[in-house]
Write a structure and sequence with these properties.
Layout: H1 2-7, E1 20-22, H2 29-34, E2 42-48, E3 57-61, H3 139-146, H4 152-161, H5 168-180, H6 184-197, H7 204-218, H8 220-227, H9 237-249, H10 253-265, H11 272-285, H12 290-299, H13 306-318, H14 322-334, H15 341-353, H16 357-368, H17 379-388, H18 392-402, H19 408-420, H20 424-437, H21 443-455, H22 459-471, H23 478-490, H24 494-507, H25 514-527, H26 530-542, H27 549-561, H28 569-575, H29 582-590, H30 598-603
Antiparallel strand pairs: 1-3, 2-3
Helix pairs in contact: 5-6, 6-7, 7-8, 7-9, 8-9, 9-10, 9-11, 10-11, 11-12, 11-13, 13-14, 13-15, 15-16, 15-17, 16-17, 17-18, 17-19, 18-19, 19-20, 19-21, 20-21, 21-22, 21-23, 23-24, 23-25, 24-25, 25-26, 25-27, 26-27, 27-29
Length: about 600
């Protein structure tokens, strides 16, 4: 653990507008690693990091102005760091695909894909291959999907009348099926129906699963209220950690920290899972607090998991600190842990982004192994990274292995790859091949090609594809809205994109992605359109995206570009508990209505 701390001493300095002073819980080597010199001017107020959980406070300089059993088959957010190589893990983040993703080095910053309408049209298995028990579609799921317009309760009442039996195993598999398709509303209705009909007694896993679905569909406030309805005997650490995971998925720093402290007050042990959630939270919002979490883990003698190292490697990669990333990998190996395929993929991605082409290709060869046919499941990871390296020949080589009987994720990966390599025709060919394999394509499949058109500013083709999508009967959700909005933004039609987003919100078929809002807001900021930038900022807050540094950066840029003073901006940051990094502080200085110039000093 001390080795991790030494490898992480730079976290506190990444992205800071000013240096920070710390009073730590002892003059150990760890405490010294966390300490940073402070500027001369200090504000009187101090922020306690975890409300007493850590014996340290911070003072900010004035220049800154301011972080299995079958019952367990229903994967929910509290199982975030239990994935193994080869598992279906859309990215790294959300239950947890939307919590840990590196998101192409420059993140879309915390998109929450709580869509109830964009289900996958099929399981990602090649035709003719054996499916694992967990990859099969349950009979309950088939009944629900065959009647998408009907409430789950009516569908299943009829299903039971037909003589079908409701078992815990079948319900668990159905929950997994619906979650994988991101049909969270349907999954919640299923959970409510099972409990109402008393088909079996709920246990802590069932209650935690319900809590997770409520948080995804109705929000954190409703989820908090639901905890009060759970029998006290089942109101355990698993339930609270599920709520903590959802606080992280929505990047609610204040609520996440409060819940972490509440779990301690309730007598629950501090687990590596809870610490990993805080690391994920601070990875997005306040990287200087990562050192605090590592200090806490050392103090409580909590051994880091491979998932902990994965988060730290991701942070180093995002900061383009390749040396630091390599040091953490070596530390992990010294602790007896070998890098997982996910970690190797992260490393290859960051090597590619930093221009370390040889190192990236060496890691990719290691991931591939001796025979790509035997290790075919890694194809979807290799294809996008080879594309980012400009290696169309390698993309072609791997795709030739998959093309005769392609899996869904391989198709989606190669469509993106050909788009990145500016070979739109090949992307279109892969798309058509994918459609032939699918009985009922969903909007997710169309969205892959739509993103290619958006990136190449092919508005006409994009419009035709959207029409085709509508004719096929696809239900649109956050992923598709994101692609359509970016299609119009890339074509310079920002107002049209704004209008589309407004209509999408009114449809209430899921929560638009953070990156969807930001695509529009960034354009308004670049034009110096303060009115519309503020409008988009408020829309994001209403949609649940608050306390994000990225939002404030775009908003202040609108004021700077319009040469309009930003009154009370520092107070808005304080109210959201957001601390500016160097670039935000510089922009705030430019928009400061009270800044002194040579002329103003002369006139005083």
């Amino acid at each position: 653990m001390w080795a991790v701390r030494r490898a992480s001493t730079q976290f506190r300095n990444q992205g800071l507008a000013s240096r920070v002073s710390r009073i730590c819980c002892g003059k150990t080597e760890v405490a010294r690693c966390c300490s940073v010199p402070c500027n001369a001017e200090i504000i009187g107020t101090q922020e306690k990091v975890f409300d007493g959980m850590l014996c340290c406070t911070r003072s900010y300089s004035s220049s800154s102005i301011f972080l299995k059993s079958h019952g367990e088959v229903c994967f929910f957010s509290s199982q975030a760091d239990t994935k193994t190589n080869g598992e279906d893990d859309d990215d790294l983040e959300d239950g947890f695909s939307d919590l840990e993703t590196p998101q192409d080095t420059v993140p879309g910053d915390g998109d929450d894909l709580s869509s109830a309408s964009e289900g996958e049209g099929s399981v990602d298995t090649a035709v003719g291959e054996k499916k694992s028990p967990l990859s099969r579609t349950s009979e309950i799921t088939k009944a629900i999907l065959n009647a998408p317009a009907l409430p789950v309760s009516k569908v299943l009442d009829k299903w039971v009348e037909e003589g079908n039996e409701v078992t815990r195993t079948e319900v668990s598999l159905a929950m997994l099926n619906l979650r994988r398709r991101r049909l969270f509303v349907k999954a919640l209705q299923l959970s409510e129906w099972v409990e109402a009909k008393k088909h079996f007694e709920f246990d802590d896993k069932n209650y935690a699963s319900r809590l997770d679905l409520i948080a995804k569909v109705k929000g954190l406030y409703s989820a908090e209220n639901y905890i009060k309805q759970i029998p006290e005997s089942f109101r355990n650490e698993k339930v609270y950690r599920t709520l903590l995971a959802n606080c992280v998925s929505t990047t609610n720093v204040k609520k996440g920290e409060q819940l972490f402290n509440k779990m301690k007050d309730l007598g629950f042990p501090i687990t590596c899972f809870a610490c990993n959630q805080l690391l994920l939270l601070y990875k997005r919002t306040d990287k200087k607090k990562i050192a605090d979490v590592l200090l806490l883990m050392e103090k409580e003698n909590i051994k880091p998991t491979i998932f902990t190292y994965q988060i730290l490697i991701d942070v180093k990669g995002q900061a383009n600190d390749i040396t630091g990333m390599e040091q953490i990998v070596e530390t992990m190996k010294d602790e007896g842990l070998e890098p997982s395929t996910e970690i190797q993929t992260l490393m290859a991605r960051y090597y590619a982004a930093s221009g370390e082409k040889d190192k990236a290709e060496a890691v990719l060869k290691e991931i591939e192994g001796d025979d790509i046919k035997k290790n075919r499941w890694v194809s979807r990871m290799l294809i996008p990274i080879y594309a980012s390296l400009g290696r169309g020949d390698e993309v072609d080589r791997i795709w030739n292995v998959c093309e005769h009987n392609p899996r869904l994720e391989e198709c989606l990966a190669v469509i993106e790859a050909w788009g990145q390599l500016n070979q739109v025709e090949k992307a279109e060919e892969a798309f058509e091949k994918m459609l032939k394999k699918l009985k009922k394509p969903s909007s997710k499949h169309y969205t892959a090609l739509l993103k290619v058109y958006a990136n190449h500013k092919m508005l006409s083709k994009g419009k035709d594809l959207v029409r085709r999508m509508g004719e096929s009967g696809c239900l649109l959700g956050p992923l598709t809205w994101d692609a359509i909005v970016k299609l119009y933004v890339s074509a310079g039609e920002v107002e049209k994109a704004d209008s589309i987003l407004g209509k999408a919100i009114k449809q209430k078929r899921g929560k638009p992605l953070f990156s969807t809002y930001m695509a529009i807001m960034d354009k308004y900021a670049a034009k110096g359109d303060v009115h519309n930038a503020e409008k988009m900022f408020q829309m994001m807050r209403q949609g649940g995206y608050t306390s994000r540094l990225r939002q404030f950066q775009a908003l202040i840029l609108a004021y700077v570009n319009s040469k309009t003073p930003a009154y009370g901006f520092s107070d808005r940051l304080k109210a959201d508990n957001v601390f500016p990094n160097k670039s935000l502080a510089a922009l705030m200085g430019q928009a400061d209505p009270f800044k002194k110039t040579a002329l103003s000093e002369l006139l005083e």
